[in-house]
Specification:
The protein has 251 residues and is of the alpha+beta class. It has two domains: 119 residues, no CATH class; 124 residues, no CATH class. 43% of the residues lie in helices and 13% in strands. It is built from ten helices and six strands, in the order βααααβαααβααβαββ. The strands form two sheets. A four-stranded mixed β-sheet has the order 1-2-4-6. It has a two-stranded antiparallel ribbon with strand order 3-5. The longest helix is centred in the middle third of the chain and has 14 residues. The two termini are 30 Å apart.
């Protein structure tokens, strides 16, 4: 069964080719020939661009011969330099004690360290922190389907997770609110951007065909990546085991 792997444009095309049982040249040629703007100018199309692209591609290369039963995802974060994810990728509620330990260890000023300990004990005055830590529904782990989205946060209207993981930024924001000092830069500088590639079984892999086609079409036509060229993984509070991790990269 084919594996969906969007590590690059090339691997994405190979995944599509495997899914449809055709050569990569057929996929590339079809994507190159599809002009979505011209199709809409005809005034006969009422479906959205994702669905239209799928229909136009399949009119050229046929229906999928298989389904994606395994999918590679890319977890974006910022971690201490020696992080090896020996325990896998932990959901937020399980990772939180370690996150606090890491943040507290970073400042060189004893007063800042003491304030961070007070913050951990008394609570963080930040709405997003309270929301994420108040319910395992928000525990993830989260990941991106398209690796390139890690480097196109602005155009895709995503949070830049390589620059600053959300929960760490929430803690730093809460620190500034409570103590008036800013520790964002010091904390961020002590951590390294990290991309963790992992592979999991996917029962509904056919739902991922549209975003990967959208990504490949944008790349083939030299267009800026947008929100529709990616989709996200939500672990729903469950650990991503170390055995599922395929690569740990510090870009």
């Amino acid at each position: 069964m084919p594996v969906l792997d969007c590590e690059s444009y090339e691997s994405s095309v190979e995944s599509i080719s495997s899914l449809y049982g055709v050569n990569t040249s057929e996929v590339i040629g079809s994507l190159r020939a599809i002009d979505l703007e011209r199709e809409y100018e005809k005034g006969t199309t009422v479906v959205g661009p994702h669905e239209l692209l799928l229909r136009l591609l399949e009119s050229r290369i046929g229906s999928p011969a298989q389904t994606f039963q395994h999918v590679c995802w890319f977890h974006l974060t910022r971690v201490p330099p020696d992080t090896d994810f020996a325990e896998g990728i932990l959901p937020l509620h399980d990772a939180l004690p370690r996150i606090w330990q890491t943040i507290i260890s970073i400042p060189t000023d004893p007063g800042t360290k003491a304030n961070l300990r007070k913050l951990q004990e008394s609570g963080v005055p930040d709405y997003l922190y309270t929301l994420k830590t108040g319910n395992r529904l928000h525990s993830g782990p989260f990941a991106m389907l398209v690796k390139e989205s890690a480097f196109n946060a602005h155009s895709m209207r995503n949070h830049d997770y390589l620059a600053f993981p959300e929960i760490i930024e929430d803690i730093c924001n809460g620190y500034q609110t409570k103590f008036g000092g800013r520790i964002h830069e010091e904390v961020s500088a002590a951590l390294r951007p990290c991309i963790v590639k992992f592979e999991v079984a996917e029962e509904e892999g056919e739902n991922l065909i549209k975003p990967v086609l959208n990504y490949c079409w944008h790349k083939e036509h030299g267009q800026e990546l947008g929100l529709g060229t990616n989709t996200c993984y939500d672990g729903n509070g469950k650990l991503i085991p170390r055995s599922a991790i395929r690569e740990i990269e510090f870009p």
